[in-house]
Amino acid sequence: MNNKNIFNKIIKKKIPSKIIYQDKKITMFEDINPKSPIHILIVPNQKIKSINKINKNNKNIIGYMIYKSVRIAKKMKFAEDGYRLVINCNKNGGQIVPHLHIHMLAGKKLRNFC
Ligand code: 5GP
After folding, report:
1. How does pLDDT run across 39-54, given as a tens digit for each residue?
2. Is 103 among the residues known to form the active site?
3. Tens digit of pLDDT for each residue in 67-83?
4. Within a domain: residue 26?
5. Whose CA is nearest to atom 15 of ligand 1?
6. Sheet strands (E) in the chain
7. What is the reported pTM?
8. Is 92 in contact with 50 (CB distance < 8 Å)?
């Protein structure tokens, strides 16, 4: 399937996915191809193509996405063991879906890569 609008379709529930949390600003759902036992994507409902498109008008969404990620980590009881938040940006950053998202990876000890 074309990656371009895939997250919009998930947000609008036009294609099925395991939605963990949704409000007016963001949607969180399970990654279809998990890279760790827990792999959640945190996505703004408003389409922002990548972190490069963050500007003074929309910058608050990033703080909100992180704040809600921490809330979910605590609610799902993996906050204390730990987790990793990742944002891929464009080609060299490994971004495939052009809709800003944070990966939340948890459930095992992750390898250090930086
Ligand atoms: P990126 O490489 O763009 O940072 O990450 C995109 C992520 O979206 C990948 O981890 C991929 O597995 C996930 N993904 C791609 N298509 C779908 C889909 O249709 N449903 C869900 N739940 N995740 C998807």
Report:
1. 999 999 999 999 999 9
2. no
3. 999 999 999 999 999 99
4. yes
5. 32
6. 19-22, 26-30, 38-44, 83-86, 102-106
7. 0.97
8. no
DSSP-derived 3-state class of residue 21:
strand
- Tell me if 1 is assigned to some domain: no
CA of 14 to the centre of ligand 1 (A): 16
Residue 2 in this model has a pLDDT that exceeds 80: no
Which domain does 56 fall in, by range?
6-106
The total of structural domains in the chain comes to: 1
Whether residue 113 lies inside any domain: the answer is no
Q: From residue 75, how far is each of 23, 26, 111 by CA, in Å?
A: 16, 17, 24
Residue 10: partners with Cβ closer than 8 Å, 6 or more residues away: 17, 19, 27, 29, 43
Which residues line ligand 1 at a C-beta cut-off of 6 Å? 6, 10, 17, 29-33, 41, 88, 94-97
In a domain, 114, yes or no: no
Nearest atom within ligand 1 for CA of residue 98: 3
Q: What CATH number has the domain bearing residue 101?
A: 3.30.428.10
